[in-house]
Protein 1
Amino acid sequence: MALPLLAGAAQAQVATQGSDAFNLPEDISFIVERSNPNERRATARVNGSIITGTDVDHRVALFVAAQESEISPEQMPALRLQVLRNLIDETLKVQEAANLDMAVTQADVDQSYERYAVQARGMSVEQMNEYLYSIGSSPRTIKRQIQGELAWDRLLQRNVRPFVNVSEGEVTELWERLEASRGTTEYRVGEIYLAATPANRAQVQANANQIIEQLREGGSFIAYARQFSEATSAIQGGDLGWLRLEQLQQPTLEAAVAQMTPGQLVGPLEIPGGYSILLLIDQRQIGMPDPRDAVLSLKQISYTFGPGTTPEQAETQAAAFVEAVEGMNGCGDADARASAVGASTVNNDEIAVRALPEALQTVLLQLNVGETTPPFGDLQEGIRVLMLCGRDDPTDTSGPSVDQIMAQLEDERINRRAQRYLRDLRRDAVIDYN
């Protein structure tokens, strides 16, 4: 993954006048050639705090473990440099919080780590520790990331959020527009934002193209957003939440999202200030019930082929199973008829349509009570159907509240100020690379 974002981020720290402020010549000849940055050792001292090669190794291992696709040896050096950049930013945040008497204590970090292990990963602290060591990482790397996030949250709460104002008039105007648009579509969008300047736009675009390629090969959008996105939504894995097109406040993004379908990935899209990679997580109609929020009562009817069953025997048994299913008169006699042909049944009375695979969602929403899906599976593992035994349809939704709209507008303005805040911390830092 060619990610010279390090150079891009450094160039983003110059004054807003752009490169013209430096009166740079078009033809630059370096007096001393600089070594390839991809060959530099990934260690640094940030205002006296050391980032070691082991710190980078453990964070890279954590990132790689979250991916479905492998990171090639050619991409690894650039990934390590990007990880180093993130570690530098985390260090600056922790230092700033400490300098302002808002230091994150070890108790705060340990408590958050335990909550992450139990709630997000379903593990005890000991199990989480063992897992991290097994992938070549360590508890320390997660705790370091937690410390950076907690420190940044405290800094924003004290130095940014109090100075962000959203008027009641702005909120009321937007709420009235939303009410007037009941029945139109609302989108849940994920974003990876990469800042760029006129001097480094081509470089950042190439980085974004590499990220897109990795995501399409199975990379985790959440992991890439947390690692590479320069928006404050990176902490939520890039999730911007539910919004209408005009709330994106960028014509390019609005036009792209309007054409997307859930699960689709697009980008990089050039916008003022950089590039965006978008993932449409979901969509729904404002103020209208979403059929996928219906709660179903389902009966799964399964037939498993015994060991040694030949393909010919499996086809015969499958045909008998399908014939038995077609003869069932609803869920009342499904158990007896299934047992008669050696099939088994399992009931689930509280499963949301949205929780099912997309292919099944479409089929189940078209079924009447007592009908079944087409058989699915294979002749090796067995086949099954789902029978609809009942459905509780969703009720109308009122859409976002005034408080939710105000919170979103505030978050957008906080995000812009936060980027400037971090840019200032980088500019004033003393960083020595080894």
Protein 2
Amino acid sequence: MSLSKLKTIFLAVFIVGLTLAIILNPKESLEASIRGLTIWWEVVFPSLLPFFIVSELLIGFGVVKFIGVLLEPLMRPIFRVPGVGGFVWAMGMASGNPAGAKLTARLRIEKQITAIQAERLVSFTSSSNPLFIFGAVAVGFFNNASLGILLAAAHYLGNLCVGLTMRFYGGSEKTQTFEKKNISFPSIKVAFRELHSTRISESRPIGKMLGDAVVSSIQTLLMIGGFIILFSVFNKVLALMQITDMIASVFTVILALLHIATDLSRPLIAGIFEITLGNQLVSESTADLLDKVMIASFILAFGGLSIQAQVASILADTDIRFKPFFSARILQGIYSSIFAFLLFKPLYLNLQSNQSTELPVFIISNSPDWAKAYWETLIQIGPLITILSLIIYIYLYGKRNVFTKTN
């Protein structure tokens, strides 16, 4: 029997088994579905929507081209991607997953980068945003604001190392037409000329661009919401069927070899599927704090299969391959765990023992309180933002696809 037929049988059996498990466990499946919907409803949608809309407008008005020219001497020699990659990297860190993938796909569709460059770029522009690291994980789960500094440092340093590693990816490709381009000092004049030409070439009026940005962003967020709900249910079903415990037994051996507490194997498995639940279970473990921080760092960097499925769906509309992205997530997980281990003493233990004014004021006062306040505010007003945005989306979608056809 061919490999293709075996894959077909496996997928069919898997989907049927998942369906039966949901039918046999309706209460648990409903609770998991509501949990996933709540995460999307309160946090994901309202936090990502502004970034998505603004990013679309910045690309349309040529601001990204402007930034790309200025960052060309930095991004190309270090990461072997065009200067516009700097914009994607910054927006990816600020707004979190899967913003980096969405912007990379958009640049590839517009042919501002090659396929290989896009695969490099998407690999290191995928990260958790600071709000999630400080507000949800450090303060919400671990109830320790000081851990946010350690987790964020390990996360973004791991992200940087992935970018430096992926610069060697695709070195033998012959289609890299931009690699031999001479790098010169950035010119404001040239950058402005690129900005102006991009704006002039954009034929859509401002109102149409804004409407397209809103519709495109909400459609992406609806897809993201579906994946969050699906993987929340999927994770719960695996736990009910004892499959999670079976996989955890394998990871127990790996953690023991690494001298990490073995009772973190189940939270690790949960985090591999869904980042939020995994970090919550890690924080509730009785393991040593260093072990918990290392596993939490790995989960944050890996992103969970839920986020990776979202990225795969976004990249499916382009010729960007998903495999390099998946490999980079494992690599970043390893890097971030190592940085968490190395930085645990200087960024956490010393921070706890030294409360003198020798340290910066923002560290002494545990300034991530702003993240907690912002997180709580977002949860309170998030549903209202989601409802209003969906109403606007329905109006714009109906106006374009229903009213236009009837007229």
Protein 3
Amino acid sequence: MTTWTNDELSRIETSDELQMAPLRGDGTARPAVPIWVVRDGDDLYVRSYRGSGGTWYRAAQSSHAGHIRSGGVDKDVTLTEETDPGLNDRIDAAYRSKYSRYSATYVTPMVADTARATTLKLMPR
């Protein structure tokens, strides 16, 4: 299994946004969209601000594959659903901490149940 390097984790963690391009069924990338990303230990996580109705999320959930760019890191990734309540609590805290300078208008939806239900772990391929 491929893992993130410490340099990749640090560069992505300190970037405000991640460009996510989920793959279509034929393996081609959809247009990239900017989303927020957080780190927990040696793992990276993303969520859909719009919950399960988010276009990029529906595509990612269907293919479980995508391409990301963030902090100078350019990688193909596998996306897996994360449902562990304890881990999701830590991810909530990571979103609140990393994006605290933004209005609650943006942060609150990222830690709501609808967004928590869309938590995806990014694994390099």
